[in-house]
Each structure stands twice: as C-alpha cells, then as structure tokens.
Amino acid sequence: MAAFSTAGESVNSYFNIDDILASQEKIPCSFNVDVAAMGYLDQSTTNVDISVGTKLELPFWLARYLYRGTRSIVSLETPKSYREGYRHILKADPNVVDLHRLGPFFYLFGGKLISFQLPDADDIASILLKTFQGRFRRIMDGSQNALHTDLTGQVSMLDEQERQLFAAGQQGLHDFQKWENRESEKLSTSVMIANHRKRKRIGVSTQPS
Amino acid sequence: MDTSEVEFLAEREHVKIIPNFTQDKIFLISGDIGPFSAGLPVSIPLWLAVNLKQRQKCRFLPPDWMDIEILKAKKQEEADSRFFTEMSSPFYMEITQLLLQWGTDDIPKADEIRTLVKDIWDLRIAKLRSSIDVFVKSEASHAKLNYLTLMEINTVRLFLTKALNHMHQLRLMTSGRSQTQQSQNF
Amino acid sequence: MLAEKALDLIRELHRTSSGTLSPYNEDKIRQVLEEMKTLFEQNKDKAHSVAEGQTDQLSSIQLRHAGIQRNKRCLLAYLYNRLEQIRKMRWEFGSVLPPDVKYNMCEQEVQWFNQYNRLLANYMRSIGESGGLDLTQDMKPPKTLYVLVRCLLDHGEFETQDGNIILLKKNSQHYLLRSECEHLIRQGVLEHVVQ
C-alpha cells in the first residue's frame, strides 16, 4: 500500500526508526575539557567528573553535540569499520564483507560520520558509494532469482538498508509470479489480519499475562 | 502498482473474436462495441472477449504476432539486440496470459506460444537487470530505455526506486556534503 | 548511559511485526520523562552559576541538553509510529479493532482512533453519489460482480442487499455480490474461490 507511505518512512525523517537506531552507533571520542558531574557516562571509573583526556565511545547523537569545530568538547576518531583497514578490504571485494556485522546501519551511520568533516571523510564517502555499487548486482540477482533456494546466508550479510532493498526485489518477483499463476485476481485475507491471527493461534500474545 | 492494475489497463486493448451470436452495437463510455454478427470476426476490448468466452459466446482469433514463426524470429531479434526491441503489443505478456488462460482450444500450438513468449520475457528481464546494474555503476543521473512495457517496469518498480533513492543519498554525501547535513542534525 | 531507556522504546517498535501493536509502555515513558526532568532541573541550576561567571559548567550543560533532545526525539517517534500503525489498522481491520489490539492502546490512542474513524466515515459519506463511497473497498480492479466464496468459520446470519438472509456456516459456499463480501474476505471470514 505504497499510497499510504508517510514521512516516517523516509530516512531523513525525525521520526524514522532506522535513523534513530543508526544514530545510536558509537564513535571513539576523547575529551578536551573537564566535564563536571557527568562521570557516570564512563563506566570504567567511579569519578564524579569526566577529566581531560578521558576516552569514551559515545553514540553519534551525543558526539555531534559535543564536537563543534574548534573548541570542541571532544575530539573524534573514525570508528574501526570505516578506517583504512576495512576500506581496503571493501575496495578489494565488497561482496565478501559481512556488512551487517560491520554495522547494521553501515551506510546510514557512515553518512552521519561524513558530516563531521573528519580528515578521511572523502575516503569514507567514496567507499560507501563504491561498496554499494559493487554489491548491487548480487543483491538484485539474489532477490530476483532464487525463490526456492535458501537465501538466509546471503541476506544475513546485508546491512539493514540492503535488506530492505532485497525485500523490495522479492516482493516484485512474488507479485509477478502470483500474477503469472493467475492468483492475483483472487481476493485474499489482509496480510495484517493474517499475521494477527497467526500470532493468536500460536499463543504469542502481545498482552501482558 | 499492483499487477492486477496493470492487467486492468491491458484489458482495454482490442483483440479479435468470432461471436456465435448477433447483436447491435453496444454504446459504452469507453467507446462503442460491435455490432456482432454470428460467424464474422469483430475487434473488441480484451475484457469483453474474456467475458464472452467464459460464457461460450465466442471464439478467440489470436493476434497476428501470436504465431510460432513470428515469435521465434522475435526471440532471435531480442537475443541479438543490445537494446530492447519494440514489441508488437505493449501488453504482449498480459494478452498472452489471458488468451491462453481462457482459450487454449482457439489458439494453435498454445503451449509452444506460451514458452516462446516467456523466453522473450526472460531475455528482456535479464537485459533490464543488466541495464540497471550498468546504470547504478555508471553514476549517470538518467537513463533512457525505449520499448519497455508496463508489466516489465512494474516488476522492478519498487526495487529500482528504492535502489536509486539509496544511490542518491550516497552520492549527495560524496558531492555536496553540506546538503546531507540537514538529515544529520537531529 | 544517557537516554538509554528512550532507546528501549524505539527498539520495541523495531521488533513489532505487522498486525500487532505492543502494549503501550507507560512505565518506560514515565521513566524517560523523569530522566528528562532531572536533566532539565540540573541544567536550570547550573545555568544560574554560568550566568554568575562559572563557565566550567558549560560543557556538562551541553551534554545534558543533548540527552534531553535525544529523549524527546525517541518519545515522539514512539508515539508517532504507534499512531501510524493504528491508522494502518483502520484500513485493514475495519472500524472495529480486535480486543487484544485495543487492550494495548492507551486512552489517548483510543480517542485518536475513534476520531480518525469518525473523520474517515464522514468523508466517505460525503463523496460519491447517493450515500457516499466506501474507499476501503475494491482495493484491486474488480473482475466480476459476483464471486463464489467459502466460509472459513461460523459467522452467523448475513443479510444481503436484496433482503435475503443467509447463514454463513463453516465450509458452506455462497455466490455473493463482490461489494457485499469483500470486507468479510479481507477479514478472513470468507475465502474467495476462483474457478
């Protein structure tokens, strides 16, 4: 029901779930100043304050508040998955990399990193694009070809956005095959209602017992 | 778009039938149909042809292109060409489906025709996928594909638009980084 | 970690599958609001000392402010995405939601659903000629006026437009006006039999 798509489905949206989850990914930070009374963010110490030089992994949403050009509260480092080492592997053969393990929101979080203007931002930007271009054919062919083969292996290595793309490809294929087998004219139970029934039948109740 | 909607549009295409009844012209909003004279070929919309056939009121006459030799040549042409070739009907797939579903007895060598049309479809879809891949890799901002049919476009629509959106996001990062800023600022 | 509870709410949305609505997490929402309040009070406090020249508090104020903003975003996204789900359910389940779904809604969500229901009903009544137009019908181009259906469960009596009363008994088959039974098919009471 694409006709009812909402702003919430765009990754740029304030309400977008994927974007909120992606902005929780962590970035290595080190503090340039003392921060009073926030020591509880650092679970390795019991200090009340955060002192200069403390290294912490902070989620993107926090880092971007504390990292503002000169006189920043923190300095940032590129997270491991986006550093030279991994960039090299991705360049060599993007298809062998398990992007989901590297960061379930590899592209989305990568895009956020770039906004920090770190020294290697250009390299990160180009590797994001090249990685997707390199993996695209396999995602497309995988989603379009194999209806009956086991795809879990391939899908498990895709990042969240790639998975959504894969699912879209499969949906297109399913729709066409249903039409080809003359099943599309048959009126059927709404998918949402069918899911609801199934959950009730197997006793997965969403109510607290 | 749903496949049943594509089919609905295809059903406006005219096909020839031989009715076994006689009837004056029918006046409809979408145009006049008929008159029907028993035994004389007449061209009518596909939806009505199927409806009459279901009630055993007519016999289908296959379109000219629905012929083994012509389809074989078409298949060869499609295989030889780098680009998409022009199909005799922009709804070739839907017309084949419906005529063969309801009127196998009216269409000579129905099974062979079904296979040939499917072969052509497969060739074209493979070509479509290669084109999409080339397009994504080339970073071009637009591509022109002639002679694609609605049903062909429809099978990749959701996938392609999602993929291009994703590409667009990634390219904004490389070219104008300031433009992506807006989305990062929550 | 800052704003960790708020993220739990988002993770909860992420896990929820189509066709369900998880229980409105009042408890967690209260905890998030409390954290926001604490952060806000602390900042208000420190803002006074900054105004008096103690600028060493600035960084921690910024940090806490980020926490407040993050919590706010998560809370609003939680509420918004639930409303979206409820709105979709109106189009799938119809104007009456299953009791277990309704049970998981908070009072304001129930109110919102009722108002949305009314708006939609009023709008559908106002369009089309004579008696409005049901927009939730004919989601696919109709092929025939009548369809053959089989009952998947005992549904009881059903009055057709022409005034006949038929008994929808499990496994019985009927030939009905498509417009009359489309909803029952979508709701899984009837199965469309294609010859």
Characterization of the model:
The complex is a heterotrimer of chains A (209), B (186) and C (195). With 209 residues, chain A is mainly alpha-helical. Helices cover 46% and strands 7% of the residues of chain A. The longest helix of chain A is centred in the middle third of the chain and has 25 residues, at 121-145. Chain A is elongated, with a radius of gyration of 22 Å. Chain B contains seven helices and five strands, in the order αββββαβααααα. In chain B, the strands form two sheets. Chain B has a three-stranded antiparallel sheet. A two-stranded antiparallel sheet of chain B has the order 2-3. The longest helix of chain B is centred in the middle third of the chain and has 29 residues, at 110-138. Chain C has 195 residues and is mainly α. Helix content of chain C is 55%, strand content 12%. Chain C has helices at residues 4-15, 26-51, 58-93, 99-103, 107-126, 178-186, and strands at residues 146-151, 156-159, 165-168, 173-177, 190-193. Chains in contact: A-B, A-C, B-C. The interface between A and C is large, with 47 and 57 residues.
Average of pLDDT of chain C: 90
Distance between the termini of chain B: 34 Å
Determine the strand fraction of chain B and express it as a percent band: 5-15%
**Tally of strands of chain C:** 5
Tell me the fraction of residues in β-strands of chain C, as a range.
5-15%
Provide the structure class of chain C. Answer: mainly alpha
Placed side by side, the strands forming the largest sheet of chain C appear as 4-1-5
Number of contiguous helices of chain C: 6
Concise structural overview:
The complex is a heterotrimer of chains A (209), B (186) and C (195). Chain A is built from nine helices and three strands. With 209 residues, chain A is mainly alpha-helical.
